[in-house]
Amino acid sequence: MHAEKLQHEFEPKIVAFVCTWCTYAGADLAGTSRMQYPANVRVLKFPCTGRIDPVFILRAFQKGADGVLVSGCHPGDCHYMAGNFHARRRFAAFRALLGFVGVDLERLQFSWVSAAEGGKWVEVVTELTEKVRSMGPMKEFKALENEEQWSGALNTPELREAFESIT
Ligand code: FES
């Protein structure tokens, strides 16, 4: 089979960690407004992006995600004051670490999407899906499947169920 054909058949799994107040509501708006966007995205919502531990991102890659999006309220709009700034700083440091261990950073994206920005949600998700589709499957972290050494913080019923749904 041609490589071109294989590439075309590949449908990436994208995991989006979003804050419930802004981006989740924006994604919901896109849905209720019947905007079209790729069905590759599995949305996991959290009270605030400040609650999203970088280990969740590692876990998503380990469980089969080919791309990860972290998205929350715009600067100044976080319902917990500065949760999104903390998230952004943590994310920047973590991203550099992923780059250091050889992960293509194009697979990981951070964005701000408000509750009123259904259109922006569609743009962000479409762009990331297309980029990751052209990159092919993410294989690097699947080798960790047998090296389960995650903290107890990840072992909540909610996260177990969420991660099961992307495999
Ligand atoms: S409440 Fe949305 S990022 Fe903090």
TrEMBL record:
Signal peptide: none annotated. This is Heterodisulfide reductase subunit D. Keywords: Iron, Iron-sulfur, Metal-binding, Oxidoreductase. One of its GO terms (molecular function) is oxidoreductase activity. Residues 14-136 form the F420-non-reducing hydrogenase iron-sulfur subunit D domain. It comes from Geomonas silvestris. Transmembrane segments: none annotated.
